């Protein structure tokens, strides 16, 4: 499965971006997790609408939203594993601007990383780390300890 984290607005060059790149490299280096590709991209509203228009049975969209469902790391790994079993080939996760997502996402699953509010750049780092943790859980790597 290919995973894209789509960010509305700018992605600043900062230490958080370096951490995201590190986690992306780690995720992409893990074999047999089912995650064959992981990337963070900046996208305009037009580009996001173009992505949303490509909806098909092998593509899933998730929006990060403060009111979304919260998962433990283990349950998030199980969610990703269920997508793999459903033969989902493309997973897009959307992070909105500080004022929220600029498109209608009523029919899209929403998840929340925490009850806390995080900056855009820190949200990306946390999401990348959770995908790395997910990949290690799926491959029984010792990074995640129960």
Description:
The chain has a single domain, classed as Alpha/beta knot, CATH 3.40.1280.10. The chain has a five-stranded parallel beta sheet with strand order 2-1-4-3-5. Helices cover 38% and strands 25% of the residues. The protein has 146 residues and is α/β, with parallel strands linked by helices.
Rg, Å, rounded:
14 Å
Tell me the span between the first and last alpha carbons.
25 Å
Largest sheet: 5 strands, parallel
Query: Could you please say which CATH topology applies here?
Result: Alpha/beta knot
Helix-strand string: EHEHEHEEH
Total helical elements = 4
- For the record, the count of structural domains works out to 1
> What percentage of residues falls in helices of 4 or more residues?
25-40%
CATH superfamily: SPOUT methyltransferase, trefoil knot domain
What is the averaged pLDDT score?
A: 91
Task: Give the strand line-up of the largest sheet.
Answer: 2-1-4-3-5
Structural class: alpha/beta
What is the correct CATH architecture? 3-Layer(aba) Sandwich
Tell me the name of the CATH class: Alpha Beta
Strand segment count? 5
Uncertain residue ranges: none
**Cα shape:** globular
The proportion of residues in beta strands is 15-25%
Key attributes of the depicted protein:
4 helices, 38% helix, globular
Summarize the structure.
The protein is an alpha/beta fold and 146 residues long.
What is the secondary structure topology, with strand pairs?
Elements: E1 2-8, H1 15-29, E2 37-43, H2 45-52, E3 59-70, H3 73-85, E4 90-95, E5 109-112, H4 120-138
Parallel strand pairs: 1-2, 1-4, 3-4, 3-5
Helix pairs in contact: 1-4, 3-4
